[in-house]
Amino acid sequence: MAANHIYVLGLETSCDETAAAIVEVPVENGAPSGAGRILANQILSQIETHAPYGGVVPELAARAHLSHLDGLIAAALNQADMTLHDMDAIAATAGPGLIGGVLIGLTTGKALALAAQKPFIGVNHLEGHALSARLTEPVGFPYLLLLVSGGHCQLLAVTGLGDYTLLGQTRDDAVGEAYDKAAKLMSLGYPGGPEIEQRARHGNRTAHALPRPLLADNRADENGLPKNCDFSFSGLKTALRQATEKAAPLDDAKVADLAASFEAAVADCLSTQTRRAMQLFRHRLSSADRLNLVVAGGVAANQYLRDALRAAAEAENFALFVPPPGLCTDNAAMIARAGAERFIAGQIDAAPMATPARARWPLSD
Ligand code: KG4
Ligand code: ZN
After folding, report:
1. How far apart are the C-alpha atoms of 120 and 30, rounded to whole Å?
2. Which ligand sits closest to the CA of 176?
3. What is the pTM of this model?
4. Tens digits of pLDDT across the chain (365 residues)
5. Does 179 sit in the ligand 1 pocket, CB within 6 Å?
6. Which of 110, 121, 218, 318 lies 20 to 30 Å (CA to CA) from residue 212?
7. What does DSSP say about strands 89-95 and 37-45: parallel, antiparallel, or unpaired?
8. Rounded Cα distance, 280 and 157, in Å
9. Type and span of the H or E element at 160
10. Distances from the Cα of 1 to the Cαs of 4, 26, 71, 343, 345, in angstroms?
11. CA 363/CA 50 separation, integer angstroms
12. Cβ-proximal residues to 48 (8 Å cutoff; 6+ apart), any chain
């Protein structure tokens, strides 16, 4: 049977990117039948607005979303050469995130859906990241997901749309947050991730012996399976602070060594705990086959971490899927895709005007 296609407009305003995108998703036998196409992907980064403050200022973010979202939606429709009436549904991030920003995207999405008489879907931003690999590759369920962003660091078993089981998570800072704080310690710019990655390329990964928190806890259960797939980055940050103070005054070479040593520690933590979760995931599926690991979220844009995770995946006989860097960091294509998958599954918001904006919204129960 030939596939038909659905078209969804997605809006993203939960943090410091204002974004609107349109995706086309092929449908066969009532399910998405492949990656489909991104027909428009408009993103306006607010980095310059927030950089002087070293982090996102919620009130400034909300004002910027309000000023730019309409123009980005018009640009997305223009880029795809479509109108609202060509859409099968409209989706917007309903949380988690900075509530002022979430409200702006969500209210705009509801208003467009009401005016154009289209179904509406309030999307969990984390589900957008969780499904983002499916925008470019036909990666099927189930898969193990490592979600690494500015606010989250989690390992989840993804067995289907909306079916997420938590296997491990950070006990303190998220990885992206650790990168941002580490950058601040070394007086580097915001956001810290790309800046540290770039500096670390010129540094010595073993210059500083920084801790790998929680890796020593390799307790196993009665089946020999790891009990601990958690992360902790606050101790690493403290150790980096001490190393930075000891190395002062800093110059480019010293910053490169600190950044490289920090990144090596993060890579070890992510690879080791993800390997443990791959063992758990394999046991749950009782499978000896090659399985899938998906890495998503802003930190997944990091090439050094991608390489480390690819090696970890190979060692456990997992295939690694990571979206291209521009789809790892916040974007609206992933929100449109998650909305499209919900739409195809018949899960549109029954009373869209009542869909709440949520500052917190965990992916797993
Ligand atoms: O997913 P995202 O764009 O927004 C959230 O939902 O949080 O992730 C942003 C985070 C920031 O903390 C940023 O420093 C980090 O992702 N990040 C990176 C890189 N690019 C962005 N971290 C490490 N290496 C990168 N290349
Ligand atoms: Zn995000």
Report:
1. 19
2. 1
3. 0.97
4. 556 999 999 999 999 999 999 999 999 999 999 999 999 999 999 999 998 998 899 999 999 999 999 999 999 999 999 999 999 999 999 999 999 999 999 999 999 999 999 999 999 999 999 999 999 999 999 999 999 999 999 999 999 999 999 999 999 999 999 999 999 999 999 899 999 999 999 999 999 999 999 999 999 999 999 999 999 999 999 999 999 999 999 999 999 999 999 999 999 999 999 999 999 999 999 999 999 999 999 999 999 999 999 999 999 999 999 999 999 999 999 999 999 999 999 999 999 999 999 999 999 86
5. yes
6. 318
7. unpaired
8. 9
9. strand 153-160
10. 9, 12, 39, 20, 19
11. 28
12. none
**Hey, what are 243's tokens?**
């190393």
Cβ–ligand 1 distance for 32 under 6 Å, the answer no
Extract the tokens encoding 31.
């399910």
Residue nearest to atom 7 of ligand 1 (CA): 150
CA distance 206 to 227: 29
Alpha carbon of 243 to ligand 2 centroid (Å): 30
- Please choose from 148, 329, 330, 361 the residue to mutate so as to test ligand 1's pocket, defined by most ligand atoms within 8 A of CB: 329
Of the candidates 155, 200, 157, which has an alpha carbon nearest to the alpha carbon of residue 305?
Answer: 200
